[in-house]
């Protein structure tokens, strides 16, 4: 099971992320958005969004650099394994709490406001729940990491990540004896990669290039419609529907020949 989850599943999740994202953009480019609801409870959205996105970005790039940078680079820079472990615990903990607070605000806003919840799809709420659970698991790993400040545990995950990135067949063995909470954290992270193309997370691939440089001038438009859409469509159909011609009353009463 360890070999499948941490030796094969990473490639499945990555392949679905890449192919699925490209396919969605080519087939349904107009779904490549976040379906903004910023007109509703704007202040809570702004604070929650800033905390969540800043925290997640710090965590993402921290994991990317920390896991994929070869050990000899840290040795060359004079950064010990223990110092690297301590930096990951402190910086990751701070960013994790920030993202969790912001994500909690976003979830509360989306779940408790009837108008926002009405415009939210199942995927919108489900992916936010997955991200919150992932943040809780990540913060939970800090308590285990704090017991191994020599950096030995961190080097195992670096060996696994770099082994996967370089297609090493025995990469899964590097974390076989790791604590369960680490394995759950990795598995859920890969699952988020797997569902990435089918959720609102795809908009991350458009920032900042597509929205800022290539296609400036985006704006949010609020409809001035005063009655429900379904009622408006019915009224429009009644106007557009042709009225059948009525036969003249005199023609109906005309006697047939021979009468």
Provide a quick synopsis of the model.
The chain is an all-alpha fold and 259 residues long. It has helices at residues 2-27, 42-68, 71-77, 81-112, 114-118, 122-145, 152-165, 180-195, 209-214, 229-240, 249-252.
Count the E strands.
0
Number of helices: 11
Unreliable stretches covering 5 or more consecutive residues: 208-212, 214-218
How many domains in all?
Answer: 1
**CA radius of gyration:** 28 Å
Order of helices and strands: HHHHHHHHHHH
Which keywords apply here?
259 residues; mainly alpha; Fumarate Reductase Cytochrome B subunit
Describe the structure.
The chain has a single domain, classed as Transmembrane di-heme cytochromes, Chain C (Fumarate Reductase Cytochrome B subunit), CATH 1.20.950.20. The protein has eleven helices and no strands. It is mainly alpha-helical. Helix 1 packs parallel to helix 8 and helix 2 (42-68) packs antiparallel against helix 4 (81-112).
């Amino acid at each position: 099971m360890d070999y499948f989850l941490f030796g094969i599943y990473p490639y499945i999740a990555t392949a679905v992320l890449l192919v699925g994202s490209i396919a969605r953009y080519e087939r349904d480019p107009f779904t490549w958005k976040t379906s903004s609801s910023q007109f509703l409870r704007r202040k809570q959205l702004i604070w929650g969004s800033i905390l969540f996105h800043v925290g997640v970005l710090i965590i993402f790039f921290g994991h990317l650099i920390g896991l994929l940078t070869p050990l000899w680079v840290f040795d060359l820079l004079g950064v010990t394994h223990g110092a690297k472990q301590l930096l990951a615990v402190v910086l990751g903990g701070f960013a994790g709490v920030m993202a969790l607070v912001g994500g909690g605000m976003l979830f509360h806003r989306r779940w408790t406001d009837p108008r926002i919840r009405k415009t939210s799809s199942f995927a919108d709420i489900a992916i936010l729940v997955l991200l919150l659970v992932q943040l809780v698991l990540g913060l939970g790993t800090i308590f285990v990491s704090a017991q191994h400040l020599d950096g030995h545990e961190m080097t195992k995950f670096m060996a696994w990540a770099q082994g996967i990135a370089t297609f090493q067949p025995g990469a899964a063995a590097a974390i076989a004896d790791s604590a369960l909470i680490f394995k759950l954290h990795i598995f859920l992270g890969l699952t988020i990669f797997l569902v990435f193309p089918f959720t609102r997370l795809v908009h991350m691939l458009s920032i900042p290039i597509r929205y800022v440089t290539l296609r400036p001038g985006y704006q949010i438009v609020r409809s001035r419609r005063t009655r429900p859409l379904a009622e408006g469509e019915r009224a429009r159909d009644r106007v557009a529907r042709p009225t059948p011609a009525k036969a003249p009353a005199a023609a109906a009463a005309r006697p047939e020949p021979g009468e």
